[in-house]
Amino acid sequence: MNEERIPKKALVISGGGSKGAFAGGVAKFLIEDKKKDYEIIIGTSTGSLMVTHLALSKLDELHTIYSNITQRSIFSNNPFYVRKVDGAQVVGVRHLNTIWNFMNGRKTFGESKNLRKFIKRKITEDYFDQVKKSNTDVVVTVSNLTANRVEYKAIKDCSYDDFCDWIWGSCNYVPFMSLLRKNGFEYADGGFGALVPITEAIRRGATEIDVIILETETEHLSRLPSTSPFSLLSTVVEFMLDQVEQQNVTIGKLEAKKNNVELNLYYTPTVLTTNSLVFNKTQMAAWWKQGYAYAKKKDLNLSNELK
């Protein structure tokens, strides 16, 4: 005889760099307007930056973070430059910066040590303690490149410094950002293995999951031809992440159906950017509003369908 499961709501936020601002807007609607109380919150990459604030319902503070973050907040050695050409945003490579990195024995094109400092400033030890004492299961996703596996780091199992490390590691989009070396292993962006960790939420007992996926549901664009080895590498990594995302969602849907889990998917309705490592304050503030409006409209349409 099967035991009846205790209902558990989960929020899962995918990776997506600067597009995390859109996820913040969706989460604001779900938490503040829909009054959803999540027992499980799992984030990958940019999603991992959000989980602590979401668990404490500090949406206004999270909005301030995503409306003010810049390239300098992330990179201690930025491998990119951004400029406008005929009104369009063009991203190029700072070759001298990447050469400097290699000459100093680094293994990546850029360094994101500023992000590690940013995490400690915005996710305070007091916030960490509040979440750790709560009943919310807060988890971040990292890719263990050495052991060739995805790992999930729960706040309840971590010290403050360790949890900050895991968030930083989850966000590090190598080879453009820093590599986390910890406990004899090398770690990188959680999205390389689990961009949308739906199955982990199910494994932790979720019976209803809201999933924010920072991509469109169907492909809306063809990538521009590569202009350099650097841009080709970027295109290859993006292609692989797209395949990981599709696989995660497909398997997640199957597992949800098998375990009778309600799955609510929130995709971006349009292509927000083709380079999520570019952090434009004005653009991100607009994406937050767009995410909130999209979630509100989606909920209204669903309510009308049920009438």
Features:
307 residues, alpha/beta, 8-stranded mixed β-sheet, two-stranded antiparallel ribbon, 12 helices
Please report the total strand number as a whole number.
10
Proportion of residues in β-strands: 15-25%
Q: SSE order in H/E notation?
A: EHEHHHEEHHHEEHEEHHEHEH
Write down the Rg: 19 Å
Q: Helix tally? A: 12
Distance between the termini: 36 Å
Structural class: alpha/beta
Largest sheet composition: 8 strands, mixed
Oligomeric status of the shown chains? single chain
Determine the fraction of residues in helical runs and give it as a percent range.
40-55%
Mean pLDDT across residues: 91
Uncertain residue segments? none
What's the shape? Answer: globular
Summarize the structure in words.
The protein has twelve helices and ten strands. The protein is an alpha/beta fold. Strands 1, 2, 5, 6, 7, 8, 9 and 10 form an eight-stranded mixed beta sheet that branches. The protein has a two-stranded antiparallel sheet with strand order 3-4. The radius of gyration is 19 Å and the shape is globular.
